[in-house]
C-alpha cells in the first residue's frame, strides 16, 4: 500500500523526491502506529497518527530523521525541533522527552532512527585518519542539522534494503559506515568526534553521564564522579552542564523521577515504593520534587496519564 501524499510545494525537487520515497518505505514497513525494529541492525522505523504530550526517555546515541511531520524534543528546559529538512543527532544517552506534532491519521509522522555505537565512530576515525573535523568544545549532547542530498541519499539506500533482505548483510555495513562518515563531516560533526576521541574532555564527561545513567539510585558525591571522569570538580561541573543543560545533581534528579514515574505506571508501585526504589529516603521530598517536575503529585499525575492511554 502506498502512502497518500498531499500536494505541497517542494523546496528542492531532488530532496523532495527522496523524501517522498523514504516516507513511502517507512509507511510500508511500519504497518501500524509505533516503532518497529527492521532487518537492518540498529535501524528502526516509526509511524504516529496521533499527537502526544512530552514523553520521557533515555535514548542511546542515535541519528533521528523525519520523512514526514515534525517532532519536538526537550532537554531540561530547552526545546529542539526537527522535520524532513533537519535531522536530530543524540550523541550522548541523556534523559530527554519528545512529542510529535503536525499530525493526522491521513498524514502521520513517519520517522527512522539509526542507533550509533560510539565505538564505531572511534574505529572510523582511527581507520580513516584525519578527515577534517575541527577540534572545539563539544557543547550540547544533541543537536539539529540541516539534511543534504548526500546524507538523505545514503539513508534512502539503507532503507531500500528492507525491500531486498538478501542484500542487507553485504551492503548495510557499508552504507552505515558512509552515514557515520557524513555525520562526522557535517558542520556539527565535531560533537560526535569529541565524544569518540579518547581522553578528550567531552569523552570524559560522557563517561560521567554513562556512570550516572547506570547508578542514579545511589547517593551522589561530586568528587567521586569527577574521579570517574578524570576531571577536576569545577571542570566536570562546567562541561557536564554544557553537554546536558543540567548540573550532575539536576541530572540525577531527572533520571530518578522519570524512572519512578515509569515504575508507578508500568509496574503498579505506589509512590513511596517507587521513590525508595530510585533512591529517595523521604516520601515527602519525593512528592515535592515529583510535583515540580511533572506539575502534579504522583497520584494525580498518574490518573491523568492513565486517562490518556
UniProtKB/TrEMBL annotation:
HTH araC/xylS-type domain residues: 206-304
SMART domains reported for this sequence: HTH_ARAC
Record Pfam families: AraC_N, HTH_18
Keyword Cell division: no
InterPro entries in UniProt: Homeodomain-like_sf (IPR009057), HTH_AraC (IPR018060), Tscrpt_reg_HTH_AraC_N (IPR009594)
UniProt xrefs under SUPFAM superfamilies: Homeodomain-like
GO MF entry, a single one: sequence-specific DNA binding
Domain of life (superkingdom): Bacteria
UniProt keyword DNA-binding, yes or no: yes
Keyword entries, A-Z: DNA-binding, Transcription, Transcription regulation
Protein name: AraC family transcriptional regulator
Lineage: Bacteria, Pseudomonadati, Pseudomonadota, Gammaproteobacteria, Pseudomonadales
